[in-house]
Amino acid sequence: MTATSESRSPSVDPTLEEVVETIDRHGNERTSLMHVLRDIQERHRCVSPGAQSLVAEVMGIPRVEVEGFVSFYSFLSEEPWGDIVIRVCDDVPDRMRGFERVLSAFREAVGVEVGRTSADGITLTTTASIGLSDQAPAALVNDVPVTELSTDKVHRIVEALRSHRDPKKLVTLLGDGNNAHPLVRSMVKNNLMHPGPLIFSPVSRGQAIRRATRVSPAEVIRQVKAARLRGRGGAGFPTGMKWEFTRASLGERKFVICNADEGEPGTFKDRVILTERPDRVFSGMTVAGYAIGAQEGIVYLRAEYQYLRAYLEAVLAQRRSDGLLGRDIVGRPGFHFDIRIQMGAGAYVCGEETALIRSCEGRAGEPLNRPPFPAEHGFLGCPTSVNNVETYCCIAKILEEGAAAFNEYGTPESAGTKVLSISGDCLKPGIYEVAFGITLHTMLEMCGAEDARAVQVGGPSGSLVGPTDFHRRICFNDLPTGGSMIVFGPDRDLLSVVYAFAEFFADESCGYCTPCRVGTQLILRYLERLRAGRAEASDIEELRRTARTMKTTSRCGLGSTACNPVLTSMERFPELYAPVDDHPDAYRRSFDLPRAVAEAERLSGRTSRGEHVEQGYHA
Question: Which of 41, 75, 252, 314 makes an SS bond possible with 345, Cβ 3.0 to 4.6 Å?
Answer without folding.
Answer: 75
